[in-house]
């Protein structure tokens, strides 16, 4: 069986434990949705495309994304209401609106509800790609945090304790990044597996191994286990 180039790229990155940018595309136009999905994957972006927006509540419980692309004119829900839903549910992922609506009032409403960018149809695929990458980099710059006497720079992959650098594995970095993004929330093992291992079935014992690695360098009781539910990063996190 011959595998596609995007599939082989994703498989290679997962095997090498390299974090691939992940985008959620919510678009009910199946031709356009498939076109964007294929274009992004050819450019190294892992894309989950849904054309039924009613799946969104379940998806955000399991997956973590770098950028969300949202159409406004969907089948069952106004896209504007989905922006509010995401922000009310503490999803801080950058949202890019992709729509045929060109009126200023539409743009104003979306930005006031919490959108980060707005692109009207028709559009150049390259422009959409550039905007998505820019939004992702904007979030990555906000990556210096302090927990107790530990300073964490996720973008530079540096942990300092009393001005001395502490080394951890690449996998532990990805796990720490996820826990910081979801700070104060219980992060399920399914979410961890999807974010850190790309959905690869590695087993709960492997997850526990990397949780132990983080616990060795973070303040005592900073990561709590919720049996059967997942893990939560607790304590004061300052940026």
TrEMBL record:
The keyword 4Fe-4S does not apply. One of its GO terms (molecular function) is phosphorelay response regulator activity. InterPro entries: CheY-like_superfamily (IPR011006), OmpR/PhoB-type_DNA-bd (IPR001867), Sig_transdc_resp-reg_C-effctor (IPR016032), Sig_transdc_resp-reg_receiver (IPR001789), WalR-like (IPR039420), WH-like_DNA-bd_sf (IPR036388). One of its GO terms (cellular component) is protein-DNA complex. SMART domains: REC (SM00448), Trans_reg_C (SM00862). Residues 142-235 form the OmpR/PhoB-type domain. PANTHER family: REGULATOR OF RPOS (PTHR48111:SF22). This is DNA-binding response regulator, OmpR family. It comes from Thermodesulfovibrio aggregans.
